[in-house]
Amino acid sequence: MKASATALDSELTVAARLAPEDVRVGQDVAVLTEIFECPSWMWLGELAGLRPDEAVRLPLMSRCGGLPLRIKGVCLPFVLVVRPDGTAGTLDLRRVQLVKLDRAYAKLVRKSLREKSGSPDVDL
Questions:
Q1: Does residue 25 form part of some domain?
Q2: Containing structural domain, residue 82
Q3: Measured distance CA(45)–CA(56) in Å, rounded
Q4: Mapping DSSP to helix (H, G, I), strand (E, B) and coil, where does residue 18 land?
Q5: In sequence order, what DSSP letters do the residues of 30-94 get, joined into one string?
Q6: 37-47, pLDDT tens digit by residue?
Q7: SS3 category, 117
Q8: Quick check: is 49 in a domain?
Q9: 71 in a structural domain
Q10: Per the structure, how many domains does the chain have?
Q11: Mean pLDDT across the chain, nearest whole number?
Q12: What is the per-residue pLDDT across 92-112, written as a single tens digit (0 to 9) for each?
């Protein structure tokens, strides 16, 4: 009996963090974390060792949930990406941490999103 190949039959892959200098045109990536900056004076409590005009950097989980993005252009620290719905946007690598996605996974997600009515409601 021959089993058909499905997403469940594929081997496990892991998204690998990308340093800004390793970003290349044609890669499938996703935003892993977003960096939020605010002045230290906005905190209710005092932060030891910080001046009031210093920024506090908070890494937050991405709102994109692993949405595959295809890199179309790179001019560090900026990256031009195309979303699965075909729209383009730019990312500032000082504000986001990218991970490289497995090509087969990215293709499967794009195909699945195209089959759904509408596009994912995600802001970059």
A1: yes
A2: 16-33+64-115
A3: 13
A4: coil
A5: EEEEEEEEEEGGGSSSPPTT--TTSEEEEEEE-SSTT--EEEEEEETTEEEEE-TTS-EEEEETT
A6: 888 777 665 66
A7: coil
A8: no
A9: yes
A10: 1
A11: 84
A12: 999 999 999 999 999 999 999
